Amino acid sequence: MPRLTDHATPMKIRAALLQHMGLPTPYAQSQPLKIAELELRDPGPGEVMVRIRAAGLCHSDLSVIDGNRPRPMPMVIGHEAVGTVAKLGAGVTDLAVGDRVVTVFVPSCGHCHPCSHGRPALCEPGFKANGAGTLLSGARRFGDETIHHHLGVSGFADYAVVARESCVKIDSSLPFDIAAVFGCAVITGVGAVVNTAQVKQGESVAVIGLGGVGLAALLGAKRAGAAPLIAIDLSDSKLAIARQFGATHTFNAAAPDCAEQVRALLPAGVAHAVEMAGSAKALELAWKITARGGSTVTAGLPHPDARLSISPVQLVVEERSLKGSYVGSCVPSRDIPRYIEWYKNGELPVDKLLTERIRLDDINAGFDRLAKGETIRTVVMFD
Predict the structure, then answer these.
(1) What is the DSSP letter of 182?
(2) Based on the domain organization, do 26 and 173 belong to the same domain?
(3) What is the pLDDT of residue 8?
(4) Which helix (H) or strand (E) holds 130?
(5) Which CATH number fits the domain that encloses residue 252?
(6) Alpha-carbon gap, residue 315 to 142, rounded angstroms
(7) Mean pLDDT computed over 131-152
């Protein structure tokens, strides 16, 4: 365990450092993530040092590794994490050392236009800081200030300094491996269904793309009472998992007539099509199967150059809605505890998302399995 001190001398940590994007697969050979010993400085005003206990591997991390989501390099990546408070910066009075916290990958300032209108996921200073690879304050807390933070978290490390706004206090009884997935997979997937689409009991839902976020959306739709509940993916094994998670019907997106198959089941189309694959083709499929008056929601993040072609006339005369969903349109301090209660009550069994638990040293091979679609959620465990 790294040694904590009471003075400003930087502490030594172990972290997964990404120095170059776009290295070839398999990552177990090219080693884009170097497990490095770095220095981490104390939290500044309004910041918190967190001892990371578990961190999930997400496609948003993979998109930085493969270059689809360009970020400033070098960077300690990882954004879906849970840990315990190790130190408090000046002015942080609502947390205590030892509190268990889940990280949030958009720190919300609380006073910009979106924040003041109840939409913290769209925080403007938070978006700017994330793009620059800094904390919300604009600072970098690694000893080498050329090293950037990933989405204000940098969770693939045994310790991280984050803005107070980047963490939510949670129930200390929740196991670390399960708690980690609430920081991204659950708030993004469940939130897209509950907050963005606002699915009501008895409405039809199709989820396209069955990674960790997509399957979380499926669980959220089941909890909302969606019927029928349709799952669509390129992988038959993922479709089998979706049936175990409560999907009433499954379709393979590789079929040229996939949209027609869905329309054969529901001639009018689905009330809500939720795209989580991060593919323009998947979003076009979601649009094709959405009913008149229905909503097409996407939380997928394809390459920035990807484009979507839809008919404006169809959008108007069918009164369609096409919505983006970021961080599940969540208010994290409200929604993360709420979703945890649903889990504890047996209404949202997100523990089913966990495929494997690995050590930090095995992280490159873990991303190989994620890229191949062999896992749902892999979690790095820290002792």
Answers:
(1) G
(2) yes
(3) 66
(4) helix 124-132
(5) 3.40.50.720
(6) 48
(7) 97
Token code pair at residue 46: 């309004």
- Dihedral of CA 139/163/216/195: which sign? negative
Most distant pair of Cα atoms in the chain: their distance:
67
Whether 36 is in a domain gets the answer yes
Residues ≥6 apart with Cβ < 8 Å to 29: none
Total domains present in the chain? 2
Amino acid at site 43 = P
Give the model's pLDDT for residue 383. 80
User: SS3 breakdown of the chain: % helix, strand, coil, rounded to 5?
Assistant: 35, 25, 40
User: Comparing C-alpha atoms, which of 45, 315, 353 is closest to residue 182?
Assistant: 353
Which two tokens mark 300? 């997928």
Read off the pLDDT of residues 328-349 as tens digits, 9 standing for 90 and up.
999 999 999 999 999 999 999 9
pTM of the model: 0.95
Instruction: Report d(CA 297, CA 310) in Å as an integer.
Output: 14
What is the per-residue burial (b if ≥16 Cβ within 10 Å, else e) of 123-145? bebbbebbeebbbbbebbbbeee
Same domain assignment for residues 84 and 102 = yes
Quote the tokens at residue 352. 């089913």
What separation in angstroms does the CA of 157 have from each of 48, 92, 208, 263, 360? 15, 22, 32, 47, 8
> For residue 377, what are the domain limits?
11-183+349-381
For strands 100-103 and 167-169, give the pairing. Answer: antiparallel
Specify whether the CB–CB gap between 160 and 135 falls below 8 A: no
